[in-house]
Please model this.
Amino acid sequence: MTSIKRLDTAAFQTWIAKNQFESNEGSTNSVHTLDRQSIATLARDIESKKIIASPREYQIELFERAKQRNTIVVLDTGTHTLDQELEERACGKQKRVAFFLVEKVALCFQQHAVLSCNLEHPIAKFYGDMKGVMKTKEFWDSKLSENMVLLDCLHNAFITMRQINLLIFDEAHHTKKNHPYARIIKDHYIRLEKQNRPRVMGMTASPVDCQTRDIKIAAAELESMLCKFPENSATTLWYRIYEQVASNSQFRPSLEFTKEASSTLGRWCADRCWQLFLTDSELVKLSARTDRDFAQDFASNGADQAVDSIRQVQSNIKRHDLGTIKPGSQELSSKVRCLYEILKDAFTQFSTKRCIVFVEKRFTACLLTDLFQQKHMRIQDMKVGYVVGSQATTTNLGNMSYRDQFITLQRFKKGEINCLFATPVAEEGIDIPECDLVVRFDLFNSVIQYLQSKGRARQRNSRYISMVEEGNTRHLRSLAQATRDAHALRRFCSALPADRKLQDQVTDVNALAKFEEAGQKVFEIPETGARLTFPHSLEVLAQFVSSLSPSEMSYKPEYIVTTYGSKFQADVILPDSSPIKSMQGFPQRSKMLARCSAAFETCVALIMKKHIGDNLQPAFAKKLHAMRNARLAVTSNKRSSYDMLLRPKIWSKLGTPSELFVTAIALENPGALSHSSRPLLLLSRQRLSQVPEIPLYFGNGQSSLARCNVLANPLKITGAEFAALAHFTLRTFFDVFSKEFETDHRELPYFLAPCIQSHSQVVGGGQAELDWASVNLVKETDTLDWVSAPEEFFSNRLVIDPWDGSRRFYINGINQSLKPSDPTPKGVPEPRSRAYRQTEKTVKDYSNSLFLKSRKRVVWRDDQPVVNAELLSLRRNLLDEHQVDEEMNNQCFIILEPLEVSPLPIEFVSMAMTFPAIIHRIDSVLIALEACSLLGLEIRANLALEALTKDSDNTGDHGKEQINFQAGMGHNYERLEFLGDSFLKMATTVSLFTLLPESTECEYHIERMLLVCNQNLFNHAVDRDLQGFIRSRSFNRRTWYPGLKLKRGKAPKTEMRHELADKSIADVCEALIGAAYVSAGEGNVDLAVKAVTEMVRSKNHKMQKFSDYYAAFKVPVWQAAVGTAAQRFVVQQIATITGYRFKSAPLLRSAFKHPSYPYETLPHYQRLEFLGDALLDMAIVDYLFKRYPEADPQWLTEHKMAMASNQFLGVLCVRLNLQKHLLTTSSALMGNIADYTAELEQAEEAAQKEAREKGVPMRNNFWLDVGQPPKALPDIVEALIGAMFVDAEYNYAVVQSFFRRFILPYFEDMQLYDTFANRHPVTFLAHKMQNEVCCSQWRICTSNVPCSLDQGIRALTESDVVCAVMVHGKVFTHATAKSGRYAKVAVAKKALAMLADVSVVGVKRLLGCDCNGLP
Model:
């Protein structure tokens, strides 16, 4: 690690500590081309933003009243529940359906989109001219049998009134005269006996038309209006056209309108109308229709003349010069000029955001839109469009399809159009986004039009302008009449009896005070004397909720008031970041007191939980901050020094044994050694645990596994045999490893011995016999005499240099061509002896290591043979696969007189050379097993060692250069820690859910954090000295020896310390849990449960096996209750979708109950969601861990995040249609779900199209193109999983089944998600910094931090990754995400955006870069 990199890393960590970095999350919704969307999709998009975020109290009360009796709801322009129907069907009564009647096709699409996204019952839409509608009784019987909610006005003989349970009339003011609404009531409804009539609900903004007309005055007004048009108001162009086509009926409507337009709009607009009307395509159509009309007169040749006249008309229009039109031109009518001034002021002075101009005729809307698009008529910031009705006409001008209407309204909503010219089609029902300005260009014809158009001006401080012609008495009378009628309507509603009006929401404060004096609840805090009263609780709760708000917004508590007999009861809904999500008050005599009661009970609960302080001030944010900081307290930066165990306790048992346990060590591939060998026997006073295979690497691509077979029966030995084994072992240490111990035989921890059998025999499972002959030979002979020995003696022997312990030789026969006095051949290994360099460098001088003076005194025989030899290297770490050997020649030539020939068998010596690496690994395994024994866990040896292995100082930092990497240690704990972390989360979650059934989700999160946090794991680990068992150092030639006193040689290390981060110790605890999970085998997690209990050491988790969880579970009363028909209906629906049938219908219903839903006495889904989240997380982690055994933890984590992400679970929710069962009263949530569903459908359609074009199956990652879903969608998926687990009596198999069936199919090809977040802006940034800016001192640094405080309880459980671009040791910019890869992408994008369009010099100045490189 370079010094610059260390400085950058230190600066980055200092910056994090200083800033306590908090993440900001956001979602980006995809933008799709409107023109490519279906009408149904566009209809859903219309509902994307609601005027009311959630139902107001008057709406809820109206809903309750509408369930009891027929109701007309009168609202200033701004359901019957189906549960009863299900109950009646369950009792065997006739099936009935509900009708929602609307007047326009557009409204049919709109209402169907809203209801289909928010009702769990199947629905359909029907409208006039719809394809596929069969006018047969069988067709409609089938629809009714499917329990359809029909959303079109169906009035025919195939359906009887008895089959209907609810009639909803939209725009109910039309129910008069011969309107279809009226015919339904008169012809069918009133003819049915009262007890069988369906409930009726009407919705309107104007229930009566109060307008009265005097015939004489009306005639006078009409005459006056006609007189305002001059007789010569038609333009010159109009007369020329009239002369050509006056007899052609196809031109009659256009002639009439353009003549009128020359007066109302101006001469320029009238002539412009002809240019827009008579296009080439229209010419063809008009010619065809004209030819058809005139062809009926067979005796006339008028058809040809008429067609020619049309061509002449087109020629006249093309030749006509309209000229340039400007705002003050007299070619525009005074009314248009006035409109221009109104709009100019609106958009330039009043900063109007939305404006609607209502006109009477379709041509008018089109012409005004065209006019304000002319060069000199354009108004700054005003973008115009028009929307008109869809009718069968002879021309395309002034006509819009339903699709075009939807597209235009959608663009108006998004701001692509901000000034809309509209006919009455936009007055009624269709929701237009809130407007600043409504202009009535053509005056309304009735009070209904007045109220409806005025209702479009919904934004606060909006303006409504009616344009009235000066001196036009009809206009003045209409305006006055409409105003009077509106006031009369309000007076009528005000005069209704009290039982037909909603109670006012405001209660007199004095009345509240009196009520308090009469015995209202008061909560007093003794320590401070602070006093919480009913009225004060509203303020205290509002202050608490506000404290949870992020900086850019302000949260408020939301109250839902419902009737409770003659009283009122309120539920208060708090934000998701609150520790309490909802609370219900007690019934009260008024709405205000009901809200006070809910607030009071909530405040008391918050005070008791210490979330509100003793002075009634919010304390949760501070408490949350402290707990979040506690998560930061244990990090990889905090390190301490600890003793590291070097030898297992098994070697501490000493003395003279009567029996020894034999472990035969053999190679699977003995040919990997350069010399022949035989197995080595390791004898111990206690039986060794079964040691896993040990990989050994001999260089030059040669490797082998070493098998350690523990023999079943111990070896009985005598005292003499014990002494022989001890001598053989000590001789091995001296001759092979140059270590001479001063020790009693009884102090040897283990013994070494040769084996008679071959490697293959031992590996194959056969017995291994001790070679007593070789042992006894070594006991009796210290060195072998070479003098007078036969020639074969000089092969396959170990020769040692008694004066230089580093020199060991294999001898391989006599060299007949060399003599002792011959010069040393070139290329032999250089000896370390300095004296040799001052001699003649002969073979005999090469063979000894004496000092110079001694060399001069000693005379070596010249008649002795020179032998071929190989210098042995003892410095290789055989556990390190990647160690690179120095290329050197070890062949040399020696005489034996200055040396000693060892009696050890050469095959034993070859195997003994591998012993240091083997015993190091055996010691590590035994120490790891001792740690498991300390915890009472029977974990497999290989997994125990892996869980305790830390091979670098920054083991957990994936993708970074490893600091102080220790080679040859095998697998480190990372993968097992990834697995154990997930199981720890699941186990503690299940335990808390079981033991604390009354706790809230926030309390669960806090309790779980206390159990699983690194601080807790670290504390309990250190209490049991677990840090000493951790393996953080690789093989060391000075630590593997037995801890005995040396006579000679380099003293071995008997003690070692290592530095460990607190977090590393906590990570090892999680890795041990993961090892326990894998050790027990498929389907058995009892050992992992026990491991969790040992690690957390808490009263909230004392389970020893998985069945203990359900044994501690007490089924709540509500869960055991008999379900209602509505609840049983959901059971059937979910069984059809998932294949799992719930035994408890209330439990399933609870999984879909949003905290905002006050109507069923069931817990909301957040407890189950808390449970399901952990269960699903474990299923995903288990799959990834087993399916990808070689994947690193970073890859596993990032792909797990894709599988468990809210983005995917939202998709899954919609694909399974689970959102239809969601119980909520939040209109904003329902609208967001509708938006998201539409966006998902578009992404899927695009993926299907792409697949068809390429001729391949549709890619399963299409959902990546969709934005973040409303959080309720992934929540109910997780809640459903939690509910299935509980319903199945804690059978985890149902969770795994759900995962395999519904989640896994999306992730069969994991390569699709390799670039989930890494779309490589990092590459672009690197290119820019290196090649353009030429900066050499920049890098991207990452670090984990807890979620920000504005995420509430998530700050206790979830982490983000903060990533910063460091330039010359300073943070240039930063970003956060859920993984390092995402964070790098985000920060790279941010940096590129900041550097865009800046010169290289400017970039260097901005970055503070002084590097001298030139681009």
User: Anything to note?
Assistant: The chain has a mean pLDDT of 81.
